[in-house]
Amino acid sequence: MINKIISSVAEAVKDIHDGATIMVGGFGEAGSPIELIHALIDQGAKDLTVISNNTGSGNVGLAALIENKRVKKVLCSFPRTANSTVFPELYNAGKIELELVPQGTLAERIRAGGAGIPAFYTPASVNTPLAEGKESRIFDGIEYVLEHGIKADFSLIKSAKADRYGNLLYHATARNFAPIMATAAKTTIVQTKQIVEAGEIDPEIVVTPGIFVQRVVEITNPAHESELVADGKKYPW
């Protein structure tokens, strides 16, 4: 019997190794797998390359993973947001690497990686510093820059509902990068608010099919990043 349910977040992330490439879902707070990230901090893996839309907020979640010196490089679109101080300080001190990727390009690089497409051309970044050193071509009189698909060792994502097969549904905009990140990793680890019995999710509305998911852990009362930041929380507590 297929059963991808894992008993704890610690168990879910225990084999993430030093030097791993990890995709982390979320658009700001929406869809950020806080509990999985905190479990990864406790687990101790280091020298990680993280692919995410941003670098987190305050001193919790992804920002805490960075603050605890576990990340050597970040690929993201928004390295600095309203409540992000950890990454900018480390980057300005030369203690962490950054690959800045336009948001649409980031999404397509992840999607391409999951679809087995090695590279594609895009007009984004033409005639900017982000295009320096990259191949470009002219199509129909318009210049395009070559970008490569991205794959990862692990993806950490958050869903609203899952079954034991790993079929997933998301809540509204918390869906964001999760579906494509699930396709682009060797191992996709999901924290979900609710696990339901097999067959309770209508196959016609499944967003991420279980074939792309390896582990699911239920977190019935997930933390909200904005509340933790507003309360001045810092992980580890």
Please render the helix and strand layout as text.
Layout: H1 9-13, E1 21-24, H2 34-43, E2 48-51, H3 61-67, E3 71-76, H4 86-92, E4 97-100, H5 103-115, E5 119-122, E6 136-139, E7 142-148, E8 152-159, E9 161-162, E10 168-169, H6 178-183, E11 185-192, E12 215-218, H7 225-230
Parallel strand pairs: 1-2, 1-8, 2-3, 3-4, 8-11, 11-12
Antiparallel strand pairs: 5-7, 6-7, 9-10
Explain what this protein looks like in three dimensions.
The protein is an alpha/beta fold. The chain has a single domain, classed as Glutaconate Coenzyme A-transferase. Helix content is about 25%, strand content about 25%. It has seven helices and twelve strands. It has helices at about 10-15, 35-45, 60-65, 85-90, 105-115, 180-185, 225-230; strands at about 20-25, 50, 70-75, 95-100, 120, 135-140, 140-150, 150-160, 160, 170, 185-190, 215-220. Strands 4-3-2-1-8-11-12 form a seven-stranded parallel beta sheet. A hairpin with a 2-residue loop joins β6 and β7 (about 140-150). α2 (about 35-45) packs parallel to α3. The longest helix has 13 residues, at about 105-115. The termini are far apart. The model has no long low-confidence stretch (mean pLDDT about 95).
Count structural domains.
1
Mean pLDDT: 97
| Number of alpha- plus pi-helical segments | 7
Which architecture would the CATH scheme give at its second level? 3-Layer(aba) Sandwich
CATH superfamily grouping: Glutaconate Coenzyme A-transferase
CATH class category label: Alpha Beta
As for the CATH topology, it is Glutaconate Coenzyme A-transferase
The succession of helices and strands, N to C, reads HEHEHEHEHEEEEEEHEEH
Q: How is the main sheet built?
A: 7 strands, parallel
- What is the β-strand count? 12
Helix % is 10-25%
Q: What is the percentage of strand-forming residues? A: 15-25%
Structural class: alpha/beta
Low-confidence stretches: none
Rg from Cα: 18 Å
